[in-house]
Amino acid sequence: MVTPQGNSVAKSRVAQGEPDYVERAQVLAAGFAERAAEHDRTASFPFENFRELSEAGLLSLTVPAAHGGAGAGARYAARILGIVGKADPSTALVLSMHYINHLVMARSTTWPARLSRKLARESVEGLALINALRVEPELGSPARGGLPATIARRTETGWRLTGHKIYSTGSPILKWYLVWARTDEAEPRVGQFLVPAGLPGTRIVETWDHHGLRASGSHDVIFDDVVIPLDSELDVRRPADWRAPDVTQATVHTVFVAAIYHGVARAARDWLIEFLKHRVPVSLGAPLSTLPRAQEILGAIEARLAVNARLIATFAGDFDDGVALSAAESNVIKLTVTSNAVAVVEDALSLTGNHGLTRANPLERHYRDVLCGRVHTPQDDSTRLTLGRAALGL
Asked: Residues in domain Acyl-CoA oxidase/dehydrogenase middle (predicted)?
């Protein structure tokens, strides 16, 4: 059972629009959208977007009200991420990871209260983003199994951390890393260690040169005998004890990722509508919007977007209301929404031809970005395999 903890006052405040974070996000998103193409072209990190998000109070959206944040739940946060994702999904992805960790932190029984209060306060007061660093060159995603190569060695004065993380989203701006590592004990334990960014022995290697989400700063982070305090150990267990998924983390991760790519699909749809209205081929003598084929394909796009919107809102709302949810159901939401989002952009491309693929228009960027939805954990094949095995009783 997922239970909201200490958010009743904050939820009421957000619902009453004090202040209206949706309106703030919409204002900022206009600027994000104007800058998105240049950040995509140069693969530059959008530092200015996060300064503006901080000034607008949006970095502390999911920080509990008791710690000075807005105390927003998953549904409200997903709405904000959809707005930002439509404008610049790279910014939205970094923001989503920050939101996820603060929601998990607020509901966790393993986070030391002193640390959770400290990180919450920092997020309210300024630019203090957090993300989990889990993926490694050899390991790949931990969701596929296996022990991390990153080692935490306990000494009398602190942990000493050595390892190599890849796809570390937001690395240029993160203040805190949640590093997935194993201990060097005779029987290794595995889990998260809280590491401040910029400690001696830490390096960011700018390796991110991707097809999509090019402005997300998902570079490599290398730890070379980095010293962290003993109380940096957050949740470290025997490997077998990690088999059951964290339902809170799984739920908000899948619904937030879904919201971002739904936003990308909506951006593609909006551009397509304007293209169809204003493109007048000489052979037709009328806008493409008058063609039944264009109207039918656009109708299919609208249907997919309507399904996505309902799935995101309902599932996130259930989470906020404490409805019992499963990781398997979360995975289905992510699979369905991201698949629909990809199909939306592919349908838009089918109507626009070369115009849709030219770099002068944003549709080709939306296509590159939306394809990244298939990469996020849980990946489509893993979700389908799990569902199939469950149906067969295996």
From this structure: 136-226
